Amino acid sequence: MTRPRFLPDNFTLILIATVILASLLPASGQTAVAFGWVTNLAIALLFFLHGAKLSRQAIVAGAGHWRLHLLVFSLTFVLFPLLGLALKPVLSPLIGKDLYMGMLYLCALPATVQSAIAFTSLARGNIPAAICSAAASSLFGIFLTPLLVTLLLNVHGDGASTVDAILKISVQLLLPFVAGQIARRWIGEWVGRNKSWLKFVDQGSILLVVYGAFSEAVNEGIWHQIPLWELGGLVVACCVLLALVLVASTVLGKAFGFNQEDRITILFCGSKKSLATGVPMAQVLFAGASMGVLILPLMLFHQIQLMVCAALAQRYANRPESIPEMMGQVDP
């Protein structure tokens, strides 16, 4: 039986089901505490496997394209936050204070790794540069996101200083990643052979955090706090934010004289925000606070960016091949 085209992908459907489950059967009391420990272990495993999976050779291959990386970083960590602040007069009354804070958190996050590379590959962009840029964004985001969250939201992890928040994230996220890089020499080939099913660790850890976050939010009455019209406004806000960044990525890529393969990489690496990194970071940065409202904009933006970028990637994929591509080469 052919899958209806209007249906989202399986992970999106499972994500929606997880939110519904948390709304009907939220974890509470000691169950929630135990669930939190399981979630933290799953997040550590997630970043350990990311470290074991990421090839250092792939990073070195694209590391020299500094102009491209600088533009992608500027889009991710400068343009997004500036747009979030500039749109406050419109967004704050449209979606309410709490969801607007979630939008600012979304703007402070690093780019995705998997989907940015996948879409760049499908669209025949500069794949080595995409690998390097997306991976570096994820790593630098461990340090930059807490700083941006402090500046934009005036929030510190557990009420402590920004340095404490960075240290906490480093212990929970960066150390497992480094351990994975060290273990790569022994398990790298195994991870490479099994990466088709290791994605379920990525998705499973996200689902665990989402269930825990929404359980806490439901226990605090999230669905009574957010009117339906604010949710509709959030959809519009996410679409507008993504459209502005996509246009800026395209215009700046042309203005700075990048070739088409590089412009494709800039488009897909500079317009993404990472759900896989953002949800675990929220678990650390906003411990003790209600996460459900804060990650709702990220969850929605993530689905919108996937659908829009999938259509854009397919459009680029259908273009005629250039002479360098026919010769098996892409300009650096």
Describe this entry's structure for a reader:
The chain has 332 residues and is mainly alpha-helical. α4 (66-86) crosses α5 (88-107) and α9 (195-219) runs antiparallel to α14 (291-317). The protein is built from 15 helices and no strands. It has a single domain, classed as Na+/H+ antiporter like fold. The longest helix has 32 residues, at 162-193. The model is unreliable at 156-161 and 325-332 (pLDDT under 50). It has helices at 10-24, 29-53, 56-63, 66-86, 88-107, 114-122, 127-153, 162-193, 195-219, 222-225, 228-255, 260-270, 275-285, 291-317, 323-326.
Explain briefly what this protein structure is.
Keywords: Membrane, Transmembrane, Transmembrane helix. The protein has helices at 10-24, 29-53, 56-63, 66-86, 88-107, 114-122, 127-153, 162-193, 195-219, 222-225, 228-255, 260-270, 275-285, 291-317, 323-326.
- Helical content (DSSP H or I, runs of 4+): over 70%
Task: Extract low-pLDDT stretches.
Answer: 156-161, 325-332
For the CA atoms, what is the radius of gyration? 20 Å
Spell out the helices and strands N to C. HHHHHHHHHHHHHHH
Task: Give the tally of β-strands.
Answer: 0
What is the correct CATH architecture? Up-down Bundle
The mean pLDDT is 79
Tell me the span between the first and last alpha carbons.
44 Å
Q: What's the main sheet like?
A: none
Shape: globular
Domain module count:
1
- According to CATH, the fold-level topology is Na+/H+ antiporter like fold
What kind of oligomer do you see?
single chain
Protein name: Bile acid:sodium symporter
Transmembrane segments: 7-25, 31-49, 70-87, 99-119, 131-153, 234-257, 278-301
Pfam families: SBF_like
InterPro entries: Na+/solute_symporter_sf (IPR038770), Put_Na-Bile_cotransptr (IPR016833)
